[in-house]
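Task 17 of the worksheet. Students: predict the tertiary structure of the chain below and write it out as structure tokens. Keep your answer in the requested format; marks are given for formatting as well as content.
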Amino acid sequence: MLKVRVMPTLLWKNFGLVKGEHFDSWRRIGTVMPAIKVYNRREVDELVLLDITATEENRDPDYESVAEFAAECFVPLTVGGGIHNLEQIKLLLRAGADKVAVNTAAYRTPTLITEIAQRFGAQCVVVSIDVKRHPDGRWECFSQSGTQPEGKEPIAWAQEVERLGAGEILLTAIDRDGLMQGYDLDLIRQVSQAVNIPVIASGGAGGYEDFYRALTEAGASAVAAASIFHFTEQTPLEAKQYLQAKGLPVRDSNIAKLPI
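Model answer:
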């Protein structure tokens, strides 16, 4: 089994960090640079930085700020928000991003996924799939920070983005976002079983056991989370210790095993 990854998500809005519920009711929780410095010390595997208003405001990514953040970030950094062409991706990578996350642009111009993979490598392309569950149980993909329904079913869309060249999928259950009541394991399981590329589970983690279940029961390759690290005393390092104690391979071999 490949080593699992624990990935904090930083939601960036108007120069600050925010967190909400269901992609709404945003509350400010600090600024980006101090968070990056803290996570450097807490042995995270990767960081995901998403500018949640860039697409809505029809503006480019903030390359200057990304360069400042990347200079202080000692782990792989995935950057998303406002991306819709190769030139922007080139500038983000030049600024220090290791990967880019695309969401809305993937629906508008699916061939962009292929172009990124061919130009910069599939490992660079993370396709973000944000999903809402309708009252009848049907799932639907949404774009533009969860405000625009796309009429696409997430399993079929995941298979399509894999075919187009995506290297990873960041799968977020909007209904679970910010509630800390656990991931949507059924959604993660069905998408993970439908594709051969890594699926990063996102949306709903409230404890280390949620990470474990997403990885073992649902087949995710990595776990992403925000609220659990912002609003509780739980840390990425302790999460990795917990997962290792449960028998999962984690990236840092120096982490001491803890009793389960």
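Marker's comment: Residues 255-260 have pLDDT under 50 and may be disordered. The chain has one domain: 5-245.
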